[in-house]
Amino acid sequence: MFTNASLSFEAAPPIQVVLRYFLSATIFGVVLALFFLFEGNRVFSDLVSQLIATHIFTIGIMASFMFGALFQMLPVVCGVSVNKPTKLAMRLHYAFIVGLFLLLFGFKSGANVAYLGAGVLLGGAFFIMSFVFLYKLGQIHFNNASRGIFFALLSIAIAIFFALLMLLQRAQIIDANFYLSFKTIHLSFALFGWIFLLISSVSFQVIEMFYVTPPFKTLYAKTLPIALFFLLLLGIFAQFFSFAFTFLYIAIALIIAIHSLYSFYLLQKKKRAASDATIWLWKLGLMNGILFALLFIASFFTSVSHLLLALFFSFFALSIVFAMMFKIVPFLVWFHLNKEGYLNAPMMHEVIHPKAIRFHFYLVLITQALFLLSNLFHPLFYLSSFLLFILFVKSFYHVYHAWHLYLDVLKNGAKFDFNFS
């Protein structure tokens, strides 16, 4: 069960560590929307375009949001102190961005040197970040959130290992044997072991904390990450020894569906009656998680569009990440200014107004609906891509505005005076 006593704010990193990654995520969101507008209908059929779009989303957007959030949540929620977080975050951030652009260039051009550069920079950034966090988490007694985060970090390390093998194959340094098996393992650990497991692990704490809901059952919270990671490990052997492949991935889909339903149920039981658009984003994301899981199971028995699966999983992740962003960013501004003793630290609703969050929710909902319809009527893809562009421009504005509001109070604000003499 969550308690305020379980939180540790003393070791929280400087605000720029988190906001820097969040800003990068929103910028890559704009890049993705512009890429869609430029590529147009080719995205529906061109494998290279799909590969580029997938990695802008998973690395540029999701990994930026998630690593930024981890720098904040590991000290606060897990009680893990990262040494010199600013230096670590900044150096890895540069490698992360340059490595991603090299990867995208490699996909487009097929240049071997781009693949190798991406492998060194991106692989190095992911491995260093994962190792530092895993090492710190290994020194503490796990709570429900930290246990899941530990397995999520193990999953992204495994996903990156198989990604590096594929890059070496693309660069023609090693034979292309088992490429499709490596691809399936990479996707499984990246999507289910990293994105889904990290979101679900964080939800064990933040749903109860933000929305005053009943807690997740302790046995459930302990079992989910272990069970999911074990199934993913079995999936590696299933690729090479051809056993129980369908059963394993149906079991993973059921875990996603069960967790989404359970989380939705808890949100319905929230004790705060006040309307909050972030909870709408959570519920939208969870409904997408349920639909993705059902379609994923159906795909083993009938033909299901991979683009449709990608759309539901993407909006599952994106909706929930937006919900957490709108909670984390205002809190960070308020917390750090209060910690430094400023009298005029803005309240959370003054950093990002609730009306702006409601507008954001409706924009996410309409954007997804148009992307769905564009599968039937391709010209709508341009309109949905334009709305995605607006969505991420607004997201960038909210994070940028919060950062400059913080700087303005630092420069012009008045501090508490504790000198009573």
Task: Please give a handful of descriptors for the protein shown.
13 helices, globular, mainly alpha, 421 residues
What's the gist of this structure?
By secondary structure, this protein is mainly α. Helix content is 78%, strand content 0%.
Question: How large, in whole angstroms, is the Cα Rg?
Answer: 21 Å
Order of secondary-structure elements: HHHHHHHHHHHHH
Counting helices, strands and paired strands, the structural category is mainly alpha
Q: What shape does the CA trace take? A: globular
Distinct helical segment count: 13
Overall pLDDT score: 90
Question: CA-to-CA gap between the ends?
Answer: 45 Å
Q: Largest sheet, if any?
A: none
User: Count of DSSP E strands?
Assistant: 0
Low-confidence stretches: 1-6
Percentage of residues in helical conformation: over 70%
Per DSSP, what share of the residues sits in E-state strands of 2 or more residues? under 5%
What does this structure look like?
With 421 residues, this protein is mostly helical. It has a domain of 130 residues. The chain is built from 13 helices and no strands. The longest helix has 34 residues. It is globular. The N terminus is likely disordered.
